[in-house]
Batch of 4 targets.
Target 1
Amino acid sequence: MSLLIIPVLIVAAATGLFLLWKFRWGPPDRTLPGVLTYHKITGFEFGGTWMTPARFASGLDHLADSGYSFIGEDQFIDTLDGKRESPGKEILITFDDGYRMLMDHALPSLETRNIPALIFLVTSYAGRENAWELPLPGRRTRHLGWDEVSDISANPLFTFGSHSRTHRDLTGLSDDVLADELIISREVIGHQTGRMARSVSYPFGLVDRRVAGSARSAGYEAGFTLFPTGRGEGVDRFCLRREGVWIIDTKSSVDLKLSGGRLFWFEDIKGRTINRLASITPFFMKKGPFD
């Protein structure tokens, strides 16, 4: 009899999680192209935001073989503005943090496949190592320098957006500091690339109404989070959903994230849990050298 309790408890827990998801978040709006976000394309490290170069390239091929096409930032914003209609099964590839390793392990794979990408930069860390991740072995990673950004921006496949100036939780900053994080980073990217940043990705995916309003006032045309906190109906151009791709993901799980199949709710809860764990990092780390 006691052995029967285990499957009953598992079913009860799964049912409870599904009902929580259904009434708290529900399925997302699918009118826009899907957006995938990556962080580190590298070998093993202590953490979950990395993926090997081979798996990254294989994942791109799998998506193409599954009938997906890839669009760039400009096409995505045109769709957001209603200037173009998406035919469906389109993907925008994004990278948060703008690490130097992308030049060796990600951009060549994209370039050979003619796949565009949007790279979000932390402008005060250009050419420097990150300082906001937990100091586990091997996690201090260098960002793209401005000379490298300039070289990459010469390729029309790749555009750059802002990931703020110093990668802090924007929701906890004063109005003036928040404005500086968004305005200065946008202007610096414009100066360094000759193209003003059109999009912003909020550090740790943390955004509220005040941050979204500040992004709009700073001149951005789109603001990306990971998992919007409200229900999925409708599109908020300054709280755009993306699907994080982590080392624990498989081709099947990425398919599920994009297609919204029957078990999408499980992938959504998994992603929200990972993002929530990552968002507590600022509580354990000191402020960076540029604060």
Target 2
Amino acid sequence: MAAMRVSIKTLAEKAQVSPSTVSRALRDDPRVRPETRRRVQALAKELGYVPSQVARSLVLRRTQTLGVVVTSVADPYVAQVLAGLEEAAEAAGYTLLLVTSNAQAERELQAIESLRQRQVDGLVLISSRAGELLDPLLPELDVPVVLVNNREHRGAHVHTVYSDTAAGARLATDHLLELGHRRIAYVGGPPGYSAGERRTGFLRALQAAAIPVDHRLLLPGMGEPDDGRRALSWVLDLGATAVVCYNDLTALGMLAAAAEAGVAIPEQLSVVGIDNLPFGTLSVPRLTTVDQEMAELGRQAAQLLLAVLAGQEGQDVVLQSRLIVRESTGPAPAP
């Protein structure tokens, strides 16, 4: 038979004090005399008292949970952000409730409503794909919201944590320009804030270098390895000597296709990714990339949300990108 759960009432009877005194003593409330606090706390430890999270939630009007909506847990980028988010949330005594949208706008809205019904204390949306569908919903939410890598939405209780991803794409492009490349292709990503910002950063770098844009070298994509695989022959046929990819997954797909086709990287084609995923160091050659500090994005998102819940004024957070040069980029081949 399972042991009976020790309650506040039981502790009060054993300690011969009121239940409210026990509650205060367990919280180290200074209104309770030190000797009484020590006696109650020692008794609680002896009897194996475990606080009731349900009761605590009723008292504090908090569930100590944060709702998180992601596109997919299989996305390595999302996994890195989640790791930082969970670390900071757990350190503050919060639990995450995670729902995936499979990158579908309607499912994202349903996920938000589901978490709302579960009375989470706050919401984090990572790489939201709901676009303008979010605009009428956000003002109706009665909890603070933090958007990760999305600055498209505003509201009294809506805050953002993001990498300056446009600057990151520009860093990648400037690196190739400094290596002498002039025919530079770009493989894009799925519709959304990040894809638009990275494309903008790429185009601004070309504009600053007075290089005309060849729109045939602006290829669509969804941020998947197959996008890089499919793009390889196209960019080579158009005379490109370098490629900026929307993310590392796309770039790694291109490196794999190049190895299969016998295309020398970087002697024939330089390739840059964005994100700095851990397995970018395992490719051959190792991938030049732009670090987006993904785990730190998650930590900052949690800390911002917790600060707002504590009654502080929320300040949006921007992280700077950093170029990491490895062996997948090199000087432009001679004409």
Target 3
Amino acid sequence: MTVLPEKTNWLNNPDIQPYFFVRKENRRNEPGAYLKDCDWFKDKEVLQREPLSMKEEGFARLIMEVEGRAFQQSGMPMPGWVFYDCGLIPGIVTGFAYRTSKLPTHLREVIGEKFLTTEWTPLSLFIAIPCANRREWVAHNLSSINSLIPKEHRFYGMGFLSKAFGLWYSNIEVLCGMTQWESPALKLHANYGDFELLTAYTPVHSHPRTMTYKCQINFKSWEKFFLREENENFENRFKEAGFKVNPKDRESLIYLQTKLEYHRVENQGSALFLKPDELRYGEIGDPLNVYQRIEES
């Protein structure tokens, strides 16, 4: 059993519960069966919501309201049709919600009384979509109200735990995702399992300096993240690939991209990874070592 930091005590609040906003056909038969060692959520009452019901319109619109404000500065808020077509219908939409009648005043003021029309108020959002390869999913969206409130009122680790809950409850084994090289979220995304790069420069994306990653979900990585322990096993399994990547340098990203294509397209070379500890403790945008598995060297 892993004891989470005291700052995550909000997770023990009975007025804060995880929600699972998923079509009945897509719900899990044995939640948590894959990550059996994870006991962080076993005592929570999961709020099952049905996205095909008109009664859930208020809940859905409040999710989009919080998400839209969180991503407003980056220019990447999620349109309603994307939320429905790409999230609610094929995938899972999950996060944490606060009982509206117990919502603190400072949160009511931030959200706005006109939106507080439902029994539960969503505070965070994680969307994952299944791939054609049935073992793989794609992380589509992650956000929380933390980005809208002062530091002293934030829910410590809510973004990480929202994603972790969705992965745990849905028995997701392999996760792909996309994020921008200079996004602070990179410090979080790299801590769910070995962080393999699929693309380093993605010109087809609206933001070409987007990376695509893949990780085999591993609960031990989650523990290390919250306990702030270095993954001492990393050096036993990985070695430096002999070059660094500079996230601020387009040519450096393209060079790494050619290395990745050499491996994935031509079946030559090695899969390439980033080290979570370097991302977590370094400055966003600093040059990073690139790694490969020792057995592939």
Target 4
Amino acid sequence: MRVAVGVLTSVHMCIHLVVRQQRLLILSLFASVGLAIACDGPTQVPANEPKPNVEPAGIESPAAEQPAPKSGTEVAELSLAQAQAIVDATDRSADDRKTDERRKPAQTLAFLQLYEGMRVADIGAGFGYTTELLARAVGQTGHVYGQNPAFVLEKFAEKPWTERLQKPVMAQTTRLDREFSDPFPDELHGSLDRVINVLFYHDFVWMETDRAAHNSDVFAALKPGGLYVVIDHSAAAGAGVSGSKTLHRIEESVLRSEVEAAGFEFVESAEFLRNPADTRDFNALPWRGEGDGQLSDKFVLKFRKPNTAVGS
């Protein structure tokens, strides 16, 4: 009997020991899991479940990535189609439309890289054909300056130029009666985005204009990065400026070197007014032959005032 009780007591003690060891094992397991959670951080959201749109307090959510903003010229630069729409405006005169046939105005406007709000100038505005196109291109928020010397006004331009300036589309145009050697007043220096000279540069020679002074004044009037576009009748290779009065032409290389000497950088040329069939031996004035089956070859050159120009 005593033996049986002893055996039972031993069995009970073994069972108690096993249960205790199991409890210790379970507690140890839970402790390990808790330590792992503490070290690894909060439970991650499964990949197939949407993450909550919550930002920690005091941390701003980063803005969505946006394209880099473009400059004004990139945003609203006049396209060829837009330029053609300006040329096709129904309120333009019949005379201007006739001039379009030899001037290719849409290509000229597009080459100038214009946009609304620009301040531009037309050297040798004459009757104002180009000036009006510029006014239409820069719009009511822009401004155009049309320059003519006394000789041009007295000989042929005063009446038609004055009449054109009365048109509503010319409301943002300022008349500049100034000589070619000093085309802009000091208050315009550093304020212009574009300057264009259409078919007048060659006249500077026989009119004895100080061409270096002229180019320096254009340079001063432009903003850094501003463009100067010159269009003129091509002279024969090697002719230089010899036919400036008799043929109204100038050699392209001569003009380019003179403009670059003022500090301008050459940007590019355009071919839309070229005529390889031009013999370059006739008077290129429209009323002396051109437009009557003898279109002259014309070069179109673009120059830039450097962004790092001294004194700009």
